[in-house]
Amino acid sequence: EVQLLESGGGLVQPGGSLRLSCAASGFTFTNYAMSWVRQTPGKGLEWVSTVSGDGGRTFYADSVKGRFIISRDNSKNALYLQMNSLRAEDTAVYYCAKVWGGNYFDYWGQGALVTVSS
Amino acid sequence: EIVMTQSPATLSVSPGERATLSCRASQSVSSNLAWYQQRPGQAPRLLISGASARVTGIPARFSGSGSGTEFTLTISSLQSEDFAVYYCQQSYNWPLTFGGGTKVEIK
Asked: Is A46 on the interface with B (CB under 8 A)?
């Protein structure tokens, strides 16, 4: 059974940093790209970032480019999102998602809430 | 960036009735489109990929159609568990983008 479990969410001040982690199990982690997708409270979904299976290629939404860094540790079946220079508009539930087929998201974690506020 | 527009924002349907949801892309995405269902308090769930291919385990009452810029998700006979928010997503190019969602509510 595929499981994705996010951790590391919380309250952070504007300009601060936070690191999200996602522990993956139930599939061959290195074979799949992984992504972060966020959802602002009561609003829709926004793709944030994707990393290839070997970690060699990364992609970012313009809204986070230069501030967020996606990475993975295939020896630990773990995905990360380092979030720097956080802004109020980054407040959201952040989902870890497994990428399948043509960049679709076939499994999602339960989400980690990040709140950016003073 | 490809903008995905969903309509209507809210659809009121009685149980057992048919629901038709629309998704329009600002430029062609060929068949690189997915549909997701999100129930309250849950993560999204992939229903349809490649515009029309139902994911394993998804009931046959869900069907997707369309290509290019116009897409449709049809739920043939709404069950109680189908009342949720539905999102489309294009994977034709970066950045990956979602529509704003259609909420299917009980009439």
From this structure: yes
